[in-house]
Design a protein that fits this description.
By secondary structure, the protein is α+β, with helices and mostly antiparallel strands. The strands form four sheets. Strands 9, 10, 11, 12 and 13 form a five-stranded antiparallel beta sheet that branches. Strands 3-6-2-7 form a four-stranded antiparallel beta sheet, sandwiched between helices. Strands 1-8 form a two-stranded parallel ribbon. The protein is elongated. The two termini are 21 Å apart.
């Protein structure tokens, strides 16, 4: 009695400790980019850009409905509120992109920053052309700005910089002084958040802030808000997956509980099965949190599904309870086989732990720790929760249907084995490529949302999240100069309409070299005054109006250069820091590309130029390459895991014939699973691969139990009854996931449901007949009777 009490106290203390860790000490990590493998420096840069790069932090906003004037007014109000919210590094809509303080601070540097500052800019012809443009501007929507700035800036450098600072060499069409779509039916805004676009929790707050600001800005206008971008998609993905997973899991859980209750017609097995699962989850979360400092939300969701296998352990114990034995005695009789089941599943899951993919490594830890917790609970805690001689009211008894299912069928065996192999060969010969390496194919984002994103991105000329050029150097000056050289090359592509545009830090902070060159072409006061007077001939301007201009040019010619620290605390400073940063003991400058028409030719052209420290990065292609490489690595690890499983099963049975009886069914089941998936038109992804791993673990359990030398026909029927209950609950749970409209959940559900059904069928047909025929019970080998 003391022993039973001590076990319960220790278990309760352990669960309370794990629960305390899970609730109060282990943070939930929602950054989905942590599921991309870190294999090299390119992968790390890819991760950084996916997680917090400028393109990943863009939110595109459209306003439609009501009149153009109403949309423009809402756009202006919304932009003002968003700039004041503190969530964004920039908010641009075609109006002034900087606040008054920043404009004053940077106005004095305009002649060092503007790309149009050349020697010809200050000749009589150049000045006259600029003054004529100012006259045209006076009759345009920017007339107020022109009147205010023309005396100090008749060449319009600040207007040039405004376009550059808004990040668009070819700005969208303007309607009522703000950006609008080509057809004029939408007002447009471009925002860049300060936080990662792939942090759903933070992005949810950002999206909520935008919606709240819009509700205030629109007042009585009948304007509709449209949102898109990586941050919006991450929120939509999380909400969609959570909604479907919660709904399907709730329905599946109810069905699973119903199946257990129908199998035993008693509430105690239902409650204890759920208690085993809860214990496994708490142990798994605590272990992952202690090892990784937190648990990924997607790992927890998928891990709990994987741990559904833990419910099989108590179910198999319940079906093998005997009236003449205590619960502990009955459990000891099947414990060696249960232990072997847990060991093989853990070995299969260990292939995930040593991978370069943090999310999958954590999933391996969750699975292993959870199964260890479930197995330990079943072995030591479960017997203490029963009266000594308890047995469920409804147990499998000799019956015609069970005996019929256990009847040997040699013809069916041959047909299944040969047909399985032949079907795989036929499918591989006629099917499309086996693997799906494009992560976009698994996206839960609806087609209409992707279409809206493309419309807004095209209208705004926003940079593409998947194409950029990386420039590395030992210091900031070299990085800026190299990126300026690349920019000069890219401008040729833009001029030839082979590239929509580009953005880089040097747009906002030119290198010191470039600033000195611009400073050198600025004329001294007297020649500039003479050239200005010449340009003013026959123009309706008074020469005295431009005295501020003459003073400003002289101040720029003799003043200091602009440095990065001068931009500290400004929106432009935040923008520069996102495009120019230190990483891996060097400086990296990013060049974001827009509307890349021929990425392969662009990549080849950059290579042919022979630039130092410059390379093209197609983030989508690179992510797919990393996933494909990781998949191949995982397959090799799984092959090693299968070898270990064979070894462990042999150590348990000490018979190669029984090893064949136990493992051949699951091998053929996985083969059948792949065949059916390919026939359904699926291409196998990482999620299929992990799901096949679960099929391997559970299917091996079926083969192990069916291949136990068991002379008692009643106990063989009870084994079948228990496995039917286990497989029924598993197929029900994953069958619900297979009904999901989300590609990931559908892939997981289909793979496991098909695989578990195939495993049970093949284990029933192959395992026990092989075990009995090849190794009839003699008392020499009985792993199910060990202590």
């Amino acid at each position: 009695m003391l022993k039973r009490s001590a076990i319960l106290v220790l278990w309760l203390a352990a669960m309370l400790f794990c629960g305390w860790l899970a609730l109060f000490k282990i943070p939930m990590i929602t950054d989905i980019t942590l599921f991309i493998p870190k294999t090299d420096s390119t992968a790390e840069l890819l991760l950084e850009q996916l997680r917090s790069g400028p393109a990943a932090r863009l939110i595109l906003i459209g306003l439609e409905g009501d009149s153009a004037q109403a949309r423009a007014l809402v756009s202006q109000r919304l932009a003002e509120q968003l700039r004041a919210s503190g969530w964004f590094t920039r908010v641009v809509n075609g109006a002034e992109p900087l606040d008054r303080d920043e404009q004053r601070k940077l106005f004095s540097y305009r002649y060092l920053l503007s790309p149009t500052v050349t020697a010809t800019r200050f000749t009589p012809a150049g000045l006259r052309e600029a003054l004529q443009q100012r006259l045209r501007d006076l009759s345009s929507p920017v007339s107020v700005l022109t009147k205010r700035l023309a005396p100090a800036d008749p060449t319009g450098e600040i207007l040039t910089l405004a376009r550059v600072w808004q990040g668009n060499d070819h700005p969208p069409r303007q309607c009522q002084g703000v950006w609008c779509s080509p057809d004029g039916q939408r007002a447009l805004l471009l925002t860049e958040t300060q936080t990662s676009g792939y942090d759903p929790n933070t992005q949810k707050q950002v999206v909520a802030a935008i919606r709240q600001a819009f509700a205030t800005a629109k007042e009585a206008a009948a304007v509709t808000l449209l949102l898109s971008g990586p941050g919006v998609f991450s929120v939509l993905s999380q909400d969609t997956i959570r909604h479907e997973a919660e709904l399907l899991s709730a329905v599946a859980s109810v069905l699973m509980v119903l199946i257990v209750w129908l199998a035993f017609r008693s509430l105690r097995p239902v409650l204890l099965s759920m208690l085993v699962l809860a214990s496994a989850v708490l142990v798994a979360v605590a272990a992952a949190g202690l090892l990784f400092g937190g648990i990924f939300g997607i790992t927890l969701a998928f891990g709990i599904t994987l741990l559904g296998e833990a419910v099989d352990y108590p179910i198999l114990v319940f079906t093998h309870l005997q009236q003449r034995k205590t619960v502990a005695q009955s459990l000891r009789a099947i414990w060696p086989t249960l232990r072997l089941c847990a060991a093989t599943t853990i070995i299969g899951s260990s292939a995930m732990i040593t991978t370069a993919l943090p999310g999958l490594a954590q999933l391996g830890v969750v699975t292993i720790a959870g199964l260890l917790g479930a197995a330990g609970f079943t072995r030591w805690v479960l017997p203490t929760l029963f009266p000594p001689a308890w047995a469920p009211r409804h147990q499998a008894k000799p019956g015609a249907w069970l005996a019929w299912l256990l009847r040997p069928r040699p013809v069916l065996v041959a047909a299944l084995v040969l047909g399985n192999i032949l079907a795989l060969l036929v499918v591989l010969a006629v099917a499309p490529p086996l693997w799906e390496d494009d992560l976009a194919a698994l996206s839960p984002i609806p087609e209409e949302a992707l279409k809206l994103d493309q419309e807004l991105r095209t209208a705004l000329g926003a940079p593409e999240a998947s194409h950029l050029i990386v420039v590395t150097a030992a210091d900031t000056e070299t990085a800026l100069r190299r990126s300026e050289t690349v920019a000069a090359y890219l401008q040729g592509w833009v001029d030839n309409d082979r590239l929509g545009g580009f953005d880089l830090a040097a747009h906002y902070l030119p290198s010191q070299h470039t600033q000195r060159e611009r400073q050198a072409v600025l004329p001294t006061p007297e020649p500039l005054r003479a050239d200005l007077n010449s340009a003013l001939a026959e123009l309706p301007f008074q020469s005295s109006l431009f005295e501020p201009f003459l003073a400003a040019v002289e101040a720029a010619r003799t003043g200091p250069l602009l440095r990065s620290q001068d931009l500290s605390g400004t929106a432009l400073g935040l923008r520069v820091n996102s495009l120019l940063f230190q990483s891996n003991r060097c400086w990296t400058a990013l060049v974001l590309l827009k509307d890349v028409r021929d990425p392969d030719s662009l990549a080849r052209g950059l290579t042919q130029q022979g630039y130092d420290g410059v390379y093209y990065l197609d983030m989508k292609a690179e992510a797919n390459r990393l996933v494909a490489g990781f998949r191949d690595e995982t397959l090799l690890r799984l092959a090693g895991g299968v070898g270990l499983i064979v070894l462990v099963v042999w150590l348990g049975f000490k018979s190669w014939r029984l090893v064949l009886a136990a493992l051949l069914p699951v091998a053929l089941a996985i083969n059948m699973d792949v065949v059916v998936l390919l026939w359904l038109g699926e291409r196998l992804s990482l999620f299929h691969l992990v799901s096949l791993l679960l099929v391997l673990g559970i299917g091996t359990n079926y083969g192990l139990f069916f291949s136990r030398p068991e002379p008692d026909p009643v106990m063989r029927q009870r084994t079948l009854y228990g496995l039917l209950a286990c497989s029924g609950s598993t197929i029900t749970v994953f069958g619900m996931l297979a009904l999901s409209a989300l590609p990931v959940l559908k892939a997981i559900g289909q793979t496991v449901a098909i695989g578990i059904f195939s495993s049970l069928l093949l284990a029933l047909v192959l395992a026990q007949p092989l075990a009995v025929k090849l190794n009839p019970p003699t008392g020499r080998i009985d792993p199910g009777a060990g202590q």
